[in-house]
Amino acid sequence: MKIKLPFLFGILILISSCLPENESTFSEFSMVNYDIVLNGNRITEYTVKVDNNEEEKVTYVFTDSLVYKTTRNTQDSIIFKHTYYIGSDSLAYKSIDSGYRENDGYYVNYTYDYENGFLVKTTGSGFNRVYDQTIDFTINNTVFEDNIISIEQCYSSACCTDGVLYNNFNNLLDVDNFSNGLLGNINKKLIDMIIAENCNSQQSTFTYEFDDDGYVVNKVETFTRPPGGSYNYYYTRVTTTKYTYTKE
Predict the structure, then answer these.
(1) In angstroms, rounded to a whole number, what is the distance separating the alpha carbons of residues 111 and 84?
(2) Three-state secondary-structure class, residue 239
(3) pLDDT at site 23
């Protein structure tokens, strides 16, 4: 869910904008493109391009006990590497995520707990080499009728919870986190809305378009945050994500 499992370090990304004092609304628009290669219903590789940023290519290598997920830039240099350790149930019980870019050097160790095939708890501990910063966190998921309906994210002693609502469209493939079945069952339905329940009043709504096979080919997320706290303006971000699929 772009509930995004998670937080590759930066872990809080603050967007600052210079607004006139009398400005009450600020909007941003973003375009993301994914080209996905499928073997059956398994993703073997994909490329992603966000706005005018450099295209990145992600590949998976599967073994009986390990899965390597590697991200390279257009110079074929490794910029991220995520290694999953697979248990007898074919699910990851831990993983190590590392970033190698000069301005984004980090590593995070994750452990995972499941109930009835769904990921219910993620525990993480990491270090950002750029800022010489350590962080510990947990993510707790509540599952109801084969959908994750609540996500509690805790850093140190502070916890924030998001409620998740679903539509009636079947979710055939994880094209939010690209977990590839390594982190348990995916939600049965597609997300309609994510609502912050306690830390703020922000929310995201989603619309979708599909191909003839039922895969998502276009997703629009509208994120809104009303004024409050250190923000004195109403903020909206619209992200359009397009997906194309190639079958091996």
Answers:
(1) 10
(2) strand
(3) 56
Q: Which residues of 25-62 are buried (b: 16+ CB within 10 A; e: fewer)?
A: ebeeeeebebbbbbeeeebbbbbbeeeeeeebebebee
Asked if the 25-247 domain carries CATH number 2.40.160.190, the reply is yes
Taking the CA atoms of the chain, what radius of gyration do you get in angstroms?
A: 18
The model's pLDDT over 23-58, given as tens digits with 9 standing for 90+, comes to 588 999 999 999 999 999 999 999 999 999 999 999
Return the domain boundaries, the chain.
25-247
Eight-state DSSP code of residue 91: S
Rounded to whole angstroms, the Cα distance separating 172 from 187 reads: 9
Q: How do residues 197-240 score in pLDDT, each as one tens digit?
A: 888 789 999 999 999 999 999 999 999 998 877 778 899 999 99
- What lies within 8 Å, CB to CB, of 22 at 6+ separation is none
For 178, the 3-state DSSP assignment is coil
Mean pLDDT of 114-139: 93
The pLDDT tens digits of the residues spanning 82-121 come to: 999 999 999 999 999 999 987 778 999 999 999 999 999 9
- Picking from 63, 93, 99, 94, the residue whose alpha carbon sits closest to that of residue 80 is 99
Q: How far is 137 from 200, CA to CA, in rounded Å?
A: 19
